[in-house]
UniProtKB/TrEMBL annotation:
InterPro entries: Beta-gal/glucu_dom_sf, Galactose-bd-like_sf, GH, Glyco_hydro_2, Glyco_hydro_2_AS, Glyco_hydro_2_cat, Glyco_hydro_2_CS, Glyco_hydro_2_N
Activity regulation behaviour: Inhibited by L-aspartic acid.
Name of the featured protein: Beta-glucuronidase
Gene Ontology terms: cellular component: extracellular space; lysosome
Subunit structure, as described in the record: Homotetramer.
Keyword match Signal: yes
Residues spanning the signal sequence: 1-21
Organism listed in the record: Myotis myotis (Greater mouse-eared bat)
SUPFAM superfamilies, sorted: (Trans)glycosidases (SSF51445), beta-Galactosidase/glucuronidase domain (SSF49303), Galactose-binding domain-like (SSF49785)
Superkingdom field: Eukaryota
NCBIfam families per the UniProt record, alphabetical: PRK10150.1
Cell location: Lysosome
PROSITE patterns: GLYCOSYL_HYDROL_F2_1, GLYCOSYL_HYDROL_F2_2
Residue span(s) of domain Glycoside hydrolase family 2 immunoglobulin-like beta-sandwich: 226-327
């Protein structure tokens, strides 16, 4: 049956997955004196395989020749990056489950194909969910998981023939199974009095639409054949001196010289080093501070790495520049410290989601979102419920927006999703995530999951292992997962550094009874703190509001009700933040698309902005609160007397 074949095709593929301990780095493809980059954004040929078993593309080997009629049948023009779901007018394609095929040809500069000292790499920012890649009909890569980059060295392929172009074919399967991340199940509807033969649907336990496709930039880039493969930077502070510990890995040769320079924002070299690892000392360092915590937040140095190798043909160099923020992060039993000062998270949970493009990366949307965060006075967000684009993380570094970086471990509900296979994959995903995001100063904590059934018996071992592995990968950051289990049954909570708890008081229970929020919320906090003596973040709270729907006294779904829920939460948060509550993140920044259910009105409407990024009443309420919090908790070291009063937009 079609569904079984779809799931089977994915499952088969997953078993070939790589083992633990990733090989190599995943540096962002930046241009430099030794590296070129060619973006493959634009229109690609696209075809969904609607055949009953979804495997016609493999049976007919669509990767062997160009994807066009008469060979493989009709194609569509599909924009990249974008989800494929909402671009067209075809309802069947919107909800399609199975393999889709993308293809495009890329012209290559002559030097890339003729200079054998050049390495040509194909890099895919995100392909949701399982992807297989061919170049000129040759299999070059396979990857599981939709939110992290992967790449293939295609030098040999493009340097072996007379062609100055290459044909890239990518098959992507969006099927989710119990051991994928996020997990899902294919449900077979076998009652033929109700469903046609072979009918199946994709079932999931998370609250967002399973958008699919090539969601982020696809690029070709070059490096020399001996190249800087990875850089690992951690920072610490000793009195006024910033310490930058670096480790660089090189591929292609064992005989090389490495020089590193650290430059400040004015371009002055403030420290120099040589060799693959070392420590740079920066006297009177400018620290990386979060937005609204300092008059000059988000200070970034540049680590300039120069690799030199002597070859028979002469000397060859590779250059890479990495932005570096010097800062420290620490957790006490009731505080989160950045550079030794208490930090209060006042921010949002987001989604990568918008009209038409779905989860597709889009610069105007991204800048609008950052402008809204700055307007709101938000100093933090969580990448609910999967890793966001690398360009998002770069902007967080540049603007001082603190990030809780979350894995796609959402919807882990069934006991099968705690299997060894699931755990193995989850460990790998954490490796990929840490490898990609470890150098971002904005990232202050890893979140391994959202709202798992952490009260189930296997959850104890699962989260113990997962959190220990993440800490081993990155001892410099705290680790958490976000829970909605009860404080006395949660088997994962003993292993987290910070308790992140979600609650929807007077929304998913006690409908309309705003008067119980204060009591229930105070009880929630007290129970967790008494049990664990760890700082707590209210990692989600909120209510749906359909923009423009008003009712006073407040009724559910009106803008007034959303505001009232927030106000009730804030009364308790204002007491508890004096003790051990270290943050509040509203659910959600903007309305977003979900599966169709009777609880969702064309998506989840808990945004304080609409999906088109227009403010609801709650946005103004939060804005006033966040700027007030910034005034109270902001700190100016030079003035020596906290609190440092930031300029409130209300007095401009
Ligand atoms: C939650 C989930 C989030 C949902 C939200 C809601 O607890 O973490 O993914 O969208 O509640 O609105 O129900």
């Amino acid at each position: 049956m079609a569904g079984r074949a779809v799931a089977g095709a994915v499952l088969g593929a997953l078993l070939w997955g790589c083992g633990l301990a990733l090989q190599g780095g995943m540096l962002y493809p930046r241009e430099s004196a030794s590296r070129e980059r060619k973006d493959l954004d634009g229109l690609w040929k696209f075809r969904a395989d609607f055949s009953e078993n979804r495997l016609r593309g493999f049976e007919q080997q669509w990767y062997r020749s160009p994807l066009r009629e008469p060979q493989s049948g009709p194609t569509l023009d599909m924009p990249v990056p974008s989800s494929f779901n909402d671009v067209g007018q075809d309802g069947q394609l919107r909800g399609f489950v199975g393999w889709v095929w993308y293809e495009r040809e890329a012209m290559l500069p002559q030097r890339w194909t003729q200079d054998l000292n050049t390495r040509v790499v194909l890099r895919i920012g995100s392909a949701h969910y399982y992807a297989i890649v061919w170049v000129n009909g040759v299999h070059v890569a396979e990857h599981e998981g939709g939110h992290l980059p992967f790449e293939a060295d295609i030098s040999k392929l493009v340097q072996s023939g007379p062609l100055s172009f290459c044909r890239i074919t990518i098959a992507i399967n969006n099927t989710l199974a119990p051991h994928t991340l996020p997990p899902g199940t294919i449900l077979y509807r076998t009652d033929t009095s109700m469903y046609p033969n072979g009918y199946f649907v994709q079932d999931t336990s998370f609250d967002f639409f399973n958008y699919a496709g090539l969601h982020r930039p696809v690029v070709l880039y070059t490096t020399p054949t001996t190249y800087i493969d990875d850089i690992d930077v951690t920072t610490s502070v000793d009195q006024n001196t910033g310490l930058v510990h670096y480790q660089i890995s090189i591929q292609g040769s064992e005989h090389f010289q490495l020089e590193v320079h650290l430059q400040d924002e004015e371009g002055n070299i403030v420290a120099r080093g040589t060799g693959g690892r070392g420590q740079l000392q920066v006297p009177n360092a400018h620290l990386w501070w979060p937005y609204l915590m300092h008059e000059h937040p988000a200070y970034l140095y540049s680590l300039e790495v120069r690799l030199t190798v002597q070859t028979a043909a002469g000397s060859m160099s590779d250059f890479y520049t990495l932005p570096v923020g010097i800062r420290t992060v620490a957790v006490t039993k009731n505080q989160f410290l950045i550079n030794g000062k208490p930090f209060y998270f006042h921010g949002v949970n987001k989604h990568e989601d918008s009209d038409i493009r779905g989860r597709g990366f889009d610069w105007p949307l991204l800048m609008k979102d950052f402008n809204l965060l700055l307007w709101l006075g938000a100093n933090a967000f969580r990448t609910s419920h999967y890793p966001y684009a690398e360009e998002v993380m770069q902007l967080c570094d540049q603007y001082g927006i603190v990030v809780i970086d979350e894995s796609p471990g959402v919807g882990i509900k069934l006991s099968q999703s705690y299997s060894n296979q699931s755990l193995q994959h989850h460990l790998e995903v954490m490796e990929e995530l840490v490898r990609r995001d470890k150098n971002h100063p904005a990232v202050v904590m890893w979140s391994v999951a959202n709202e798992p059934t952490s009260f189930l018996e296997p959850a104890g071992y699962y989260f113990k292992t997962l959190i220990a592995h993440t800490k081993a990968l990155d001892p410099s950051r705290p680790v958490t997962f976000v829970t909605n289990s009860k404080y006395d049954t949660d088997l994962g909570a003993p292993y987290v550094d910070v308790i992140c708890v979600n609650s929807y008081l007077s929304w998913y229970h006690d409908y309309g009874h705003l008067e119980v929020i204060q009591l229930q919320l105070a009880t929630q906090f007290e129970n967790w703190y008494r049990t664990y003596q760890k700082p707590i973040i209210q990692s989600e709270y909120g209510a749906d509001a359909i923009t423009g729907l008003h009712h006073d006294p407040p009724l559910m779904f009106s803008e007034e009700y959303q505001k009232s829920v927030l106000e009730q939460y804030h009364l308790v948060l204002d007491q508890k933040r004096k003790e051990y509550v270290i943050g509040e993140l509203i659910w959600n920044f903007a309305d977003f698309m979900t599966d169709q259910t009777p609880q969702r009105v064309i998506g989840n409407k808990k945004g304080i902005f609409t999906r088109q990024r227009q403010p609801k009443g709650a946005a103004f309420l939060l804005r006033e609160r966040y700027w007030k919090l910034a005034n109270e908790t902001g700190y100016h070291p030079a003035a020596g007397k906290p609190p440092y009063l930031v300029k409130s937009p209300f007095t401009w």
